[in-house]
Amino acid sequence: MISIKVILIGDSGVGKTCLIQQYTSKEFTEEHITTIAAGDKSFKEVKVGEKTLKLEIWDTVGQEKFKSVNKIYMNQAKIALIVYDMTDQNSFNNLKNWYQELKDKNDSVEIIGVIANKSDLYEDKVIDKEEGENYAKSINALFFETSAMDYESVAAVFEGLAKKYVEKKDKEDRKREEDEQKKIKLEPSKHKEEKEKDQNYEKGASIRRSNIF
Ligand code: GTP
Questions:
Q1: Any atom of ligand 1 within 6 Å of the Cβ of 87
Q2: Which own/partner contact pairs does 41-47 have at CB distance under 8 Å and 24+ positions apart?
Q3: 77 Cα: distance to centroid of ligand 1 (angstroms)
Q4: Is the shortest distance between the CB of 115 and ligand 1 below 6 Å?
Q5: Cβ partners under 8 Å of residue 35, min gap 6
Q6: Confidence class of residue 66 from pLDDT cuts 50, 70 and 90?
Q7: What is the pTM of this model?
Q8: Which whole number is the average pLDDT over 46-54?
């Protein structure tokens, strides 16, 4: 099974902890208990076609004064969810800072989702869907609207991003195979030479190994 690290980032109060809770336990809490220590992780398996992915989902700290602890947790994440609250203009304005932070502290992220949360508070909405979509497009991310009270909307995010991740990996694998095939076709002798070199090296290595033991 493939294990993938997923992180949620965004301002304090946008609903990161609630989104994770809804997705992993189908629960929602009204209370806002500020996350002050990143490093809490939850797990959930998701099926994409024939493949099963184990998502290792990390919560992070939104509050500015505690934010420095996020640094080490952002590392190695392959999927990132940048969350804003659609009823809070500041949380939307800060997306670019979160994105920059992500880029500065993580060079392994492959798939990004921009999440407009609290869609149940539709009447208080201050950010239009189009604005969110445009921002997501500008950083080559997928866009989702969620309510942490509604399981389906939350599951669609994790499933959509996991699917995109698998598609990207499959595409890269196919491209590698095609390039390899092209190399064989264009330079069969060179390819044969390289292969023989590899085989000879392996033979030498096994002799070296047998000498050691
Ligand atoms: P920090 O831990 O401080 O970074 O905040 P957070 O982003 O983890 O926010 P949290 O999940 O604790 O949610 C903050 C508040 O928003 C809580 O009172 C939640 O009940 C509320 N909340 C979260 N998501 C939603 C939502 O989709 N709709 C509504 N109406 N409230 C939400």
A1: no
A2: 44/158, 45/1, 46/158, 46/159, 46/162
A3: 22
A4: no
A5: 16, 17, 59, 60, 61, 62
A6: low
A7: 0.85
A8: 94
